[in-house]
Specification:
21% strand; 243 residues; seven-stranded mixed β-sheet; 9 helices; alpha/beta; 7 strands
């Protein structure tokens, strides 16, 4: 992936700091905007992630790049005793904490400010780790994945939900037109940050997907790696484990 793809082209900040700034700015509208952009299908994808994780009966779950906590909150439908949401954006976490309190889940879900490339937990700590639409925002993808492997317990489950690019006609052409032309316009209409959804579109198009990401996961040390394309390939669920 091109490491030069950042939210703010002329900023002196590193990608990590730029991503945090961008999400702080759009946090108030993020949930509603996500539903509009994906036509609500992202809810269905997250429920599939829930089913995969729930089947492993984890006691502890870490949701990386948790944002406003949508997936962490969904994980409360498992029998997990403790769910932790980690994100670098204070603005997104503030929204998430309010949502969790409103659902009376504060005793089970903890939201913490943290960096996916320096996870503040001991080795072999979590039974399951999830990340939805977050790995492409890692400043150093392999370092972030290595940290996830470190804190995942042996035989634990790691699930990624991430955008991908359809490969079959006419879905590929339709996706390209939508992501390059429509998505940035929707972002500008709903967001205070003109560049945010242009960046999200650009980063999604450049991110390795399918077998390319599978191979990176294997290189890091994950086992039993598989990719499951969703909705004509506009998103993919990846599942992996640890020896």
């Amino acid at each position: 992936m091109d490491k030069n793809i950042t939210p703010y082209k002329n900023s002196s900040l590193g990608k990590k700091e730029q991503v945090a700034k961008m999400f702080d700015t759009i946090s108030g509208n993020y949930d509603n905007l996500n539903r509009v952009i994906s036509f609500g299908i992202d809810v269905k994808w997250r429920k599939k992630v829930l089913k995969i994780v729930s089947n492993t009966q984890p006691k502890t779950i870490l949701d990386i790049a948790t944002g406003t906590g949508d997936l962490a909150i969904l994980m409360a439908n498992t029998k997990a005793e403790k769910i932790t949401g980690l994100d670098i954006s204070e603005g997104m976490l503030e929204v998430g904490i309010k949502k969790i309190a409103h659902k009376n889940l504060s005793n089970r879900i903890e939201m913490i400010l943290g960096d996916s490339e320096n996870i503040p937990f001991n080795d072999n700590h979590f039974d399951a780790i999830t990340v939805a639409f977050g790995v492409r925002n890692f400043e150093n993808l392999e370092k972030g994945l290595a940290e996830i492997l470190r804190v995942l317990k042996p035989n634990g489950t790691f699930v990624i939900l991430e955008t991908s690019v359809p490969e079959k006609t006419p879905y590929k052409q339709g996706y390209n037109f939508y992501s390059k032309n429509i998505l940035p316009i929707i972002g500008k209409l709903f967001s205070k940050d003109d560049v945010a959804y242009g960046y999200l579109s650009e980063s999604a198009a450049a991110f390795p997907y399918g077998e390319a990401l599978n191979n990176i996961l294997r290189k890091i040390g994950f086992i039993d790696v598989k990719a499951m394309p969703q909705t004509f390939g506009v998103a993919t669920i990846y599942v992996a484990s640890k020896k």
